[in-house]
């Protein structure tokens, strides 16, 4: 933030010109260097974290980009692709689900710590799961509080790469902060990638049918392919192999869902989700999920239903939208009836993306239509929840905050850096002297009081020895 003249850009855009990455990254490094003390530059790690956009690059382009980065080894410490685990950590941190308190109003779960099967289970706050759908990939992450069983040894081997076990405490021995989280990323299942797969399928199947039946469906604007995933009378084009295929929407939401279901690549095996990937069972009765990115955009931008998700209401709104004629949708758009950041691209593909989000959630991840604990969101507590927050927390989870606080204090009192050991001993010595002096003063005071009492008690006998009568003694006392 606050970097002048910066525009939104991704590293993957330099796939064909990797030599220009330096021009992009150096201003960012310069900005960071101004906020990190110069003495700390060499020991400050730099994390390069990439989204799924990097994964779909050709191998040669990706290799060149990695080479450019790693050749600047004096800057680079870590290069990795981001994990939905970061988003999971970020949202649960913001919601305060890592705080182990005895609040009776909070939903809790019974957690069996990995490797501590002989110990009693821990009861702690229920964490939330996350669903995140971008343009290229879809991600899911949620805590698996109990030990899971596997249908086969092969499934167990696959699950090892999908179940992340980590400690968010400041000490590896604090097992109450151990979490077991299922983390999976599905490339090609993002909203835009799914639409591209759908169009590829429509194009190839239509060309094949045209060849077999001698038709020209979709090859001219006068005989377009009737696409149930576009709003009624909306027009679109597919460009492939130098050919153009013309589409016209029919807005049939149910038929659209039927056509895209095969793209889930579901299998008949138990405990599997999208693409036949292993997925541990979700305790639907005691769980909570947040849906970000496309899950939010598809419910809010046009349908204005962001927040608490209701499958029946969502289907009705999506059906009505798909069945509305394109000129009517355009007129509503011009009147500003949709979200301020909704554009014509969103309007055209809202019907498809509504169906896609619904199928991924209910058919792919097998959430029942009655599930009522999903919230779609862009912000939480008026703040946008970014995976970058989770990445920072994860990468620095074994760095105690008290050390950071002490370092900050010493940074504002630089003369403490070299002499803190001596000052600590001076402080102890001064405290010792104060205590010792207090004890001596107290003993001296007791001694004076004791002498005064002795002097007072000896006065009558002295007076008797001097021959004073008893009446005078009484008066003196």
From TrEMBL:
<keyword id="KW-0378">Hydrolase</keyword>
<keyword id="KW-0472">Membrane</keyword>
<dbReference type="GO" id="GO:0006256">
    <property type="term" value="P:UDP catabolic process"/>
</dbReference>
<keyword id="KW-0067">ATP-binding</keyword>
<keyword id="KW-0812">Transmembrane</keyword>
<dbReference type="GO" id="GO:0045134">
    <property type="term" value="F:UDP phosphatase activity"/>
</dbReference>
<dbReference type="GO" id="GO:0017111">
    <property type="term" value="F:ribonucleoside triphosphate phosphatase activity"/>
</dbReference>
<dbReference type="GO" id="GO:0005794">
    <property type="term" value="C:Golgi apparatus"/>
</dbReference>
<keyword id="KW-1133">Transmembrane helix</keyword>
<dbReference type="GO" id="GO:0016020">
    <property type="term" value="C:membrane"/>
</dbReference>
<dbReference type="GO" id="GO:0046036">
    <property type="term" value="P:CTP metabolic process"/>
</dbReference>
<dbReference type="GO" id="GO:0005524">
    <property type="term" value="F:ATP binding"/>
</dbReference>
<comment type="similarity">
    <text>Belongs to the GDA1/CD39 NTPase family.</text>
</comment>
<feature type="transmembrane region" description="Helical">
    <location>
        <begin position="426"/>
        <end position="444"/>
    </location>
</feature>
<protein>
    <submittedName>
        <fullName>Ectonucleoside triphosphate diphosphohydrolase 4</fullName>
    </submittedName>
</protein>
<keyword id="KW-0547">Nucleotide-binding</keyword>
<dbReference type="GO" id="GO:0004382">
    <property type="term" value="F:GDP phosphatase activity"/>
</dbReference>
<dbReference type="Pfam" id="PF01150">
    <property type="entry name" value="GDA1_CD39"/>
</dbReference>
<dbReference type="InterPro" id="IPR000407">
    <property type="entry name" value="GDA1_CD39_NTPase"/>
</dbReference>
<feature type="binding site">
    <location>
        <begin position="135"/>
        <end position="139"/>
    </location>
    <ligand>
        <name>ATP</name>
    </ligand>
</feature>
């Amino acid at each position: 933030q606050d970097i002048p003249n910066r525009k939104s850009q991704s590293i993957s855009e330099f796939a064909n010109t990797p030599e220009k990455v330096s021009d992009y990254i150096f201003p960012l490094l310069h900005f960071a260097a101004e906020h990190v003390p110069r003495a700390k530059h060499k020991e400050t790690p730099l994390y390069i974290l990439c989204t799924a956009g990097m994964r779909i690059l050709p191998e040669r382009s990706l290799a060149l980009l990695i080479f450019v980065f790693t050749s600047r080894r004096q800057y680079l410490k870590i290069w990795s692709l981001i994990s939905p685990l970061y988003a999971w950590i970020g949202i649960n941190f913001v919601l305060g689900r890592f705080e182990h308190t005895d609040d009776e109003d909070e939903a809790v779960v019974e957690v069996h710590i990995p490797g501590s099967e002989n110990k009693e289970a821990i009861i702690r706050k229920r964490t939330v799961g996350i669903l995140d759908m971008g343009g290229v990939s879809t991600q899911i992450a949620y805590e698996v509080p109990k030990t899971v069983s596997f249908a086969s040894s092969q499934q167990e081997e696959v699950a090892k790469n999908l179940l992340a076990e980590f400690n968010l405490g400041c000490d590896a021995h604090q097992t109450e902060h151990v979490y077991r989280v299922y983390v999976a990323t599905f490339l090609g299942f993002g909203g835009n990638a799914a639409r591209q797969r759908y169009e590829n399928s429509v194009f190839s199947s239509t060309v094949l049918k045209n060849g077999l039946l001698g038709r020209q469906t979709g090859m001219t604007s006068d005989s377009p392919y009737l696409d149930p995933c576009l709003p009624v009378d909306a027009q679109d084009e597919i460009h492939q192999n130098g050919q153009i295929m013309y589409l016209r929407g029919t807005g049939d939401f149910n038929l659209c869902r039927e056509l895209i279901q095969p793209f889930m690549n579901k299998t008949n095996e138990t405990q599997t989700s999208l693409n036949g990937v292993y997925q541990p069972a979700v305790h639907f009765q005691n769980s909570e999920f947040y849906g970000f990115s496309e899950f939010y955009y598809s419910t809010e931008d046009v349908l204005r239903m962001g927040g608490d998700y209701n499958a029946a209401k969502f289907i009705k709104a999506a059906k009505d939208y798909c069945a509305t004629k394109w000129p009517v949708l355009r007129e509503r758009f011009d009147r500003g009836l949709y979200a301020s950041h909704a554009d014509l691209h969103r309007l055209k593909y809202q019907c498809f993306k509504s169906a896609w989000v619904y199928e991924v959630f209910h058919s792919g991840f097998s959430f029942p239509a009655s599930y009522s604990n999903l919230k779609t969101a862009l912000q939480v507590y008026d703040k946008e929840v970014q995976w970058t927050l989770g990445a920072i927390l994860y990468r620095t989870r074994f760095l105690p905050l008290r050390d950071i606080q002490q370092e900050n204090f010493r940074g504002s009192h630089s003369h403490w850096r070299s002499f803190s050991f001596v000052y600590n001993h001076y402080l102890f010595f001064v405290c010792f002297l104060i205590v010792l002096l207090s004890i001596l003063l107290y003993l001296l005071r007791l001694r004076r009081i004791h002498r005064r009492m002795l002097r007072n008690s000896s006065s009558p006998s002295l007076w008797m020895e001097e021959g004073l009568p008893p009446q005078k003694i009484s008066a003196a006392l």
